[in-house]
Structure formats: C-alpha cells, structure tokens
Design brief:
The chain is mainly α and 183 residues long. The protein is built from seven helices and no strands. The chain is 77% helix and 0% strand. The longest helix has 35 residues.
Length: 183
C-alpha cells in the first residue's frame, strides 16, 4: 500500500477550496479595506519581508488611525485565526497524498523525509507566531518592543517554509506524473 492512498482526493480539494475562500475573506474583507483606509498594505502581505522600521511605521500609523487598528485586529481574530490551520492541513495532506518521499526523490533518507513532512507545521507555527507578534506589537503591551523585533523574522520563516513546501509539492507532483506505473 502506498502512503497517502487512503486520503481521498476530495478532502484535499475541499481543503484547497476552503483555503481560497478564507483567503478571499481576508483579502476583500480586510486587506483591501485596510489599504483603502491607510494607503498602505498590511505587513502580512510583504512577501519580500520587512524590517523593524516598517513595524515602527505601522505602529505609528495604527496609533493615528483607529479604524485601521480595528480592521487589523478583526483580521487576526477572524480569518487569520483559521487560515494557518487550513493551509497547514492542506500542505500536509497533499504531501501524504503524493506518497512516500523517498520513492519520489530516488533514494531513501528517512531523516530528510521526516523533515519535509514537518515543513507544513513549521509554516503553521510561524504564521500563528506572526499573528500573535502582530497583535502584541500593535497593541499596548509592555512586550511590544520585543514583538516588533520578532515580527519580521516570523514573517520570513513563514514565507520560507511555505515556499519550500510548495516547491517540494510541485516536484513530487511532477515526479509522480512522469513516473511510469504510478496512478
């Protein structure tokens, strides 16, 4: 029996649809209105990363604009509470669905295979860590300075683990498609 053969494709497709729905909720319900209100994008959308100066600028912006602060807080307690878990589950189940990693990479390295299966969880933890750091950094907490320093690193870790997971998934999908005798 192949790894992942027990996971129906419809479950992976349902998770993908739910991820898209929550992403649309985040984008059209919070990111676009935030940009309209402030003229600036939410820091979570900076794929290339940002530094502490950008966090300080956002803190100042949110101190001056109560509506933007409420939008950002609602985003973290709304769709951003659900999305990391959904995407983590989707990435992990997609990895399982594609089968044993050792077979797709042509050799068996149990430690590397286990580490690859952990990547979606690294993403999920980093995304939740980024959300928590944002709430603390943009709030009135005495730990706001520490959270502001941590925030750019959590974002980098989140996008790095997401990118690596996506690259591995694409490579596994291509290997499965090109492999003779695989379904």
């Amino acid at each position: 029996m192949k790894a992942g053969s027990g996971i129906p494709l419809w479950i992976v497709a349902l998770l993908a649809a739910l991820c898209l729905a929550v992403l649309a909720w985040t984008t059209f319900g919070f990111v676009v209105p935030f940009k309209h209100e402030t003229g600036q994008a939410v820091l979570d959308t900076y794929f290339a990363g940002y530094d502490e100066a950008a966090v300080f600028h956002m803190q100042t912006l949110l101190d001056q604009n109560e509506t933007a602060a409420k939008l950002l807080r609602a985003m973290y307690f709304g769709p951003e509470l659900i999305f990391p878990a959904l995407l983590t589950a989707l990435l992990f189940l997609a990895l399982l669905k594609l089968g044993p990693l050792g077979a797709w990479f042509g050799r068996s390295h149990p430690l590397v295979g286990q580490a690859i299966y952990l990547l979606p969880f690294v993403y999920g933890i980093a995304d939740y860590g980024e959300n928590i750091s944002s709430l603390i950094a943009f709030g009135d907490s005495p730990s706001a300075g520490l959270a502001a320093q941590l925030l750019p690193w959590m974002t980098r870790l989140k996008f790095a683990s997401l990118a690596i997971s996506s690259i591995v998934l694409v490579r596994l999908a291509i290997a499965r498609w090109l492999s003779p005798g695989r379904d």
